[in-house]
Amino acid sequence: MAATARTRRVLVFNQYAKPLSEPGGTRHIELFGRLDGWDYLIVTGDRDYYSRQRVEADQKHFKRVRVSDYEGNNHRRVLNWLTYCLGALATAFRPGQVDVVYASSPHILTPVAGWLAARMRRARFVLEIRDLWPDSMVDLGHLRPGSLTHRALKALEVWLYRRADRIVIVAAGWHEYLAALGIERAKVEWVSNGAEPADFDLRPDDCRPLRDRLPVHGKLFVYTGAHGPANGLDALLDAAAELPDHTFALIGDGIEKPRLVERATGEGLTNVHFLDMIPKRELAGIIGAADVGIHVLADAAVFRHGASPNKLYDYLAAGLPVVTNCPGDPHDIVYETGAGMAVDSSDLVAGIRKITELDSSSLREMGRRGRRYIQENRSRTVMAGRLQRVLDSVLPARQ
């Protein structure tokens, strides 16, 4: 009689991972929690990425490691990354089974720690790319192209790609980017970000819908997510200034938020409301009461390689029509499904203005089309199936 196949174990390195009970990135708990035959531990930092407040609560599948504090993009932020990597490595060397180390960017030091942990534990190394480092740093003005630091980071990037047993990308367009660096396509697997439509059903008994939290007039537009240089939120404030008869809610945090709040106040944009970050479970229950979701990014060359924005999938899963100015896959999804307005990078205001002219029935139909697309193509369940195949292929089950 054959022995029962043992449960395999994957160690996930993601400094910014969050459980569903907290605001922030829940990609990994949603994906790994749907796998069959795998146990997992997500190693995350103990300080919130935006508020920089130490978070003490813990979860069964989370291990928090101490990281240093920082403000702004300076040497203290690099120290923050380094302290996370040291803590993650210490976790990897504790007693217990480790079959796969799954290390996720955006910053490139986490994959370095993941590779080292995999080597020391004789485990397989899966590298997940959620941001094209260092190209995104160059495009957003944080790194001078051709500088010694830039060349060193590019060399490290390629070095990691070549040493990974498998590479997971969140945007399908990055296949071509990796191919241009000499990485064989068979080594790369696309596991998009996504959302589970059932999680976004309105639950007024559990939380207050967005319309009950704000003074709303006209259509209610919602933006959820980071408030940073890459997000191009000045274009959203431009739209609010031109459309004072409609309401705009921005939910989230980031280094640009104080400046954006100051701008809105200084310009007297009383139709703009800034809300703090909201835990994913609560957020899922409130945004469906909005009329339109806004997906906006800065006009940066790196985004033309592709993008996989969680906020876009959240809106669509919630049944919201969407206005997006992001090229590539986000534009194609919204345009081809008829789930909203897909515009050029510089045309966000025009797209928002156009959607205000539609009646409620047209908006509801857009929302239904988008939700159906997510259910069939980009749900967490669908993408967990793709991740399952990656892990099963890199480490077949042992009998």
TrEMBL record:
UniProt cross-references to CDD domains, sorted A to Z: GT4_WbuB-like
Keyword annotations: Glycosyltransferase, Transferase
Cytoplasm among keywords: no
Gene3D superfamilies for the chain: Glycogen Phosphorylase B
Pfam families assigned to the protein according to its UniProt record, in alphabetical order: Glyco_trans_1_4, Glyco_trans_4_4
Keyword Transferase in record: yes
Identification of the protein by name: Glycosyltransferase
Residue ranges of domain Glycosyltransferase subfamily 4-like N-terminal in the record: 37-194
InterPro entries, alphabetized: Glyco_trans_4-like_N, Glycosyltransferase_grp1
